[in-house]
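Researcher: Next entry in the queue.
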Amino acid sequence: MTQLVDQTVLVTGANRGIGREFVRQLLDRGVAKVYAAARDPQTIAAGDPRVVPLQLDVTDAASVARAAQIAQDVSVVVNNAGIARGASVLDADTATLRGELETNLFGTLAVASAFADRLAQRAGIVINMASVASWLPTAGTYGVSKAAVWSATESMRLELGPRGVQVVGVHVGFVDTDMVATIDAAKSDPADVVCQVLDGVENGDLEILADDFTRAVRAGLHQPIQTRLAQLQP
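Model: Structure for this entry, 234 residues:
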């Protein structure tokens, strides 16, 4: 069992949506400190003295290095920062895909790399926010970036697990945040998603599927590709 009480946590993308909810619930669970990271730290609501707003652009190597230098006491990293554009994978202009990969994949890897050694020293935790889109080709370029996060999390677990680090991959469908505000679909409550994640972390889980749809998609990955594609046809 993993205890979050008295841990020092870094949350990326902490100024809104799921990231802000992570900060709130981590405080409720008794963490010692939360570095609430965002590109503009002035957007962080720091009403609790345990919250430390931190400037961090996960796509900027210098920014990641500065954050790692400041937050040297971190024992838990929540890689939550992400963007969704969802262009076609066949677009001749790959700018959208490259942008999603820079934030969703390379940003996640950069932060994990910057903190890996100190997490290993503290039997720490890495939580990577992936998506059900990791397994759904209908998600376009966003799905490509999240599939890469899924694969990277598996590789990260092989490298950091033997060093005592709990590497957790989180998958979920639409969550009721401003990122998907214009999408007309069933959405999970951010508070419920984060609660499932933190419960799973404390239970020692390595993969967390945070809604029924995601659990069904994950369970169906064993099906032949023709069957899965037929289920996705309109």
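Model: The longest strand covers residues 33-38.
Researcher: Noted, moving on.
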